[in-house]
Request: fold
Amino acid sequence: MQIDDPTYVFRLEDVEVETLRRAAEDRGLPFDASRRDYTTSELSKYGMVRESYNSPELRKFGVEPNKVVTCFDECSDLARDHLLVDAPFATGIRKWQLPIDIVEWRAFMTEFPPNSFVSPHVHPENTVDEPGGSLRTVLKGAIEYAGRTFGPGDWFFIPNGIPYSFKTDAKRDTVVMYSYAFFAAGKGNRFSHPIDIAHHHKRAEENLEVA
Reply:
């Protein structure tokens, strides 16, 4: 699922250029450190996905850091359509950023149709000592993960660098609140570069051969 128009041109911040460099290294692709402008289509070739909206983009949407925001506010309803983010490892789901600006991590809502499957993938570590990760809290329906069923009120945290997949309730829609600390989110990064498990294993084998 790709949110932005394929022809839309992003002007990358320094931390986003570093994210692109990491993505290029992971995939064995060329990288130009001097380049800043990329289309959505070009970024997708590196596996880059829009993970969030940065503070300037949120300001344009009307989000202010010193304002109380609740699920009853009009901006919360508008965010469902206007703050959509990518979800590359599942089909039919809807994922959007909540209209709040917490810079060290980002908060989202995700709606899954019945029997959704998030295919195996891994989010690269931010750093070895501080990998970051994702926290999911089930609000409606259920998620089956790691041999357990998580229902409303249940939660689980997955550090970046740990491969995972899960499936949702077979008969009902599932709604999840999702918080994610990804590389340089606090410095305005909008992108990450998760990789599928097959590619992850391939890169691990190549690193062992080099070692």
Observations:
- The chain has a mean pLDDT of 92.
- The first helix runs from residue 14 to 27.
- The chain has one domain: 9-210.
